[in-house]
Amino acid sequence: MSEAALDTVEETKPSASKISYPEIIGNGLWKQNPGLVQLLGLCPTLAMTVSLVNGFSLGLMTALVMAASNASVAPIRQWVPTEIRIPVFILIIAALVTIIDLSMHAYLQSLHAVLGIFIPLIVTNCIVLARVEAFAAKNPVAPSALDGFMMGFGLALVLAVLGGIREILGKGTLFSGIDLVFGPSAKAMVLNIIPDYHGFLLAILPPGAFIGLACLIAYRNWVEQRKSARLANANPALVH
């Protein structure tokens, strides 16, 4: 990941002396959401959101890796020389992703087969290294772990919503593939939202992912604009 890309995330880092846990949660879920604001991790966002289960599963794995990476880097940050910090951080992330990958292969083989190469590719996900560099390398363990998890969970929610929308429009179902996580008995949990639906191919193709993500970004921007307008009307002095 380039230094320029890391610098863009630097602006989102709270001061170490003024760490606010509610602010960390709010940044991860909404204000600095990786999928809707920072637009990081677009590869899994566009590729693995053909269903809610696939999208959320990969997002949750990313959140666990980010939390563990931040928690691992924070205690050793003062001992890592600046010149080699990026290779050291990548090595830590790669080790944690390998643990996740092997664990899923052992206990969730079916889901692991569906997610495939995108689990090892978490190592190269921009958001993981960005949060390690911008937050964990400058803050204590507890807030760093929370920051990593909430940023990853915020991305997981975007993947879940986008995957749910594409699944409904493309297949007319919801929770398709949940048996990959909970076993064959979970097939009864699949919801047929649109009975006798013949599908909408565009929704489950890559262009559908771009269109769906654009709609989510537009919705978030609309909500923020309405919020700003209400604040401006309530406090006209803020406009000036």
Task: Give a brief description.
The chain has about 240 residues and is an all-alpha fold. The protein is built from 12 helices and 2 strands, in the order H-H-H-H-H-H-H-H-E-H-E-H-H-H.
Sum up the structure in keywords.
12 helices, two-stranded antiparallel ribbon, mainly alpha, 240 residues, 66% helix, single chain
Name the beta content range. Answer: under 5%
Q: Can you give the mean pLDDT?
A: 89
Largest sheet: 2 strands, antiparallel
Per DSSP E runs of 2 or more residues, the count of β-strands stands at 2
Shape: flat
List SSEs in N-to-C order: HHHHHHHHEHEHHH
Structural class: mainly alpha
Spatial extent as radius of gyration: 19 Å
Report helical residue fraction: 55-70%
How many domains, in number, for the residues? 1
Distance between the termini: 39 Å
Identify the strand order in the major beta sheet: 1-2
Unreliable parts: 10-16
Separate helix tally:
12
3D structure, described in words:
The protein has 240 residues and is mainly alpha-helical. It has one domain. It has 12 helices and 2 strands; from the N terminus they run H-H-H-H-H-H-H-H-E-H-E-H-H-H. Strands 1-2 form a two-stranded antiparallel ribbon. Helix 4 (52-73) packs across helix 5 (85-107) and helix 8 crosses helix 11. The radius of gyration is 19 Å and the shape is flat. It starts with a helix and ends with a helix. Mean pLDDT is 89; it is low at 10-16.
Secondary structure: elements and pairs:
Elements: H1 3-10, H2 21-31, H3 42-47, H4 52-73, H5 85-107, H6 109-115, H7 126-134, H8 141-171, E1 173-174, H9 179-182, E2 191-192, H10 201-204, H11 206-234, H12 236-239
